[in-house]
């Protein structure tokens, strides 16, 4: 059986069931003036992983394997934004407010877009999600089922919020999940390290973690 070198043990890869899930690599989390910065975070940590996310995406495209992108965002009328989410975090700009890149985390606004270097290409699915997890109130689950995808490689931000939430949701639904370590980041290095440790603890309780080079080698 084909394997990807991973922790806590080798990931038993089935290439015909494998997809790359790129979580929320949006300007709002990576550029000054966006949502991440409004929460008081150093967004330069996020931009540093762009080259590793890019080569992972390119590897999947070259191998003819699916790449699915997610975007955290809300409808312009905020009907999918619970007050409990809008009011959280004491940010300088709340979701839906007008910022330097348009309205914060609103579908179609410039700041909500995926970073140009990682932009989806024709044919790639983009899931707009109102939650931290990609399954809640989206068509993500149906898309995976329709495409026969059962194994998910994860990249994107932030490790302990939207990436980990989606991995946990996927794990409960029976998907085998592998996190690409250099292709994910948090505003807090200690949270990234803790999320990686939690995910692969107890015999891969939520999933596996692997290095980008080892993932790329297996799909080359
Ligand atoms: N995409 C994602 O992780 N959304 C967040 O709000 N993350 C934070 O860490 N704030």
Explain what the structure shows:
It is a single chain. With 220 residues, this protein is an alpha/beta fold. It is built from 9 helices and 10 strands. A 6-stranded parallel β-sheet has the order 7-4-3-8-9-10, with helices on both faces. It has a two-stranded antiparallel sheet with strand order 1-2. The chain has a two-stranded antiparallel ribbon with strand order 5-6. Strand 1 (3-4) and strand 2 form a beta hairpin. Helix 4 (50-62) packs parallel to helix 9. The longest helix is centred in the C-terminal third of the chain and has 16 residues, at 189-204. The model has no long low-confidence stretch (mean pLDDT 97). It binds tricarbonodiimidic diamide. Residues 24, 29, 39, 72, 132, 157-158, 161-162, 187 line the site of tricarbonodiimidic diamide. Residues 24, 29, 39, 72, 132, 157-158, 161-162, 187 line the site of tricarbonodiimidic diamide (TIU).
According to DSSP, the number of beta strands is 10
Strand order of the largest sheet: 7-4-3-8-9-10
The succession of helices and strands, N to C, reads EEEHHHHEHEEEHEHEHEH
Round the mean pLDDT to the nearest integer and report it: 97
The secondary-structure class comes to alpha/beta
C-alpha end-to-end distance: 16 Å
Rough outline: globular
State the major sheet.
6 strands, parallel
